[in-house]
């Protein structure tokens, strides 16, 4: 959203370029997945939410150099070596700011930024950076494994996923529950139309 003289204008982020900043040490690839399927599932989750009608998605993974394997690179994920949690967060913040400087979000060219990390609600500096991005026209999307309710209450965050749901291509968390799109069966659809 964009605020102009007290009015809020809605921006269309459905066709926007999305950059995903993923802490693979905190929220790694689930046992029944691989990096390629995670990328496909995140793309599906974004499409399900209406964020990726025609938009491109770039993935960046942060973790220990020894633990990030070739599968990430083969999946088209940019690998950024960063060790301990504090170092990974600082590197992600730095890279997000650098990316934002290189990719300014403008009304005719909106951008999505997705952060996948654990315990984001506890890091005020990180949240401050994301707030600053939202105030400059970026659409902020988050995924966490734990306290998504507190993240969902942040006014500058558009959507929050539980990592399990996002990694499976599911829907985001909304008001204490997972946002589930109910698609009527043919018989339910005909019944609602009076046929």
From TrEMBL:
It holds the Pfam family NYN. CDD domains: PIN_limkain_b1_N_like. InterPro entries: Marf1, NYN. It comes from the Eukaryota. Residues 18-144 form the NYN domain. This is NYN domain-containing protein. It comes from Cardamine amara subsp. amara.
């Amino acid at each position: 959203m964009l605020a102009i003289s007290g009015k809020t204008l809605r921006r269309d982020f459905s066709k926007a370029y999305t950059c995903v900043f993923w802490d693979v040490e905190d929220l790694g690839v689930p046992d029944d997945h691989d990096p390629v399927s995670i990328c496909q599932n995140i793309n599906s989750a974004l499409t399900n939410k209406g964020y990726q009608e025609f938009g491109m998605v770039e993935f960046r993974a942060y973790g220990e150099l020894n633990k990030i394997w070739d599968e990430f690179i083969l999946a088209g994920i940019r690998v950024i070596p960063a060790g301990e949690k504090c170092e990974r967060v600082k590197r992600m913040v730095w890279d997000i700011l650098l990316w934002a400087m290189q990719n300014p979000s403008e009304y005719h060219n909106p951008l999505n930024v997705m952060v996948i990390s654990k315990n984001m609600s506890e890091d005020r500096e990180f949240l401050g950076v994301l707030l600053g991005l939202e105030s400059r026209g970026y659409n902020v999307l988050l995924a966490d494994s734990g306290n998504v309710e507190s993240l969902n209450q942040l006014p500058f965050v558009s959507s929050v996923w539980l990592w399990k749901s996002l990694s499976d291509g599911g829907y985001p968390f909304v008001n204490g529950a997972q946002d589930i799109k109910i698609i009527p069966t043919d018989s339910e659809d005909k019944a609602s139309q009076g046929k």
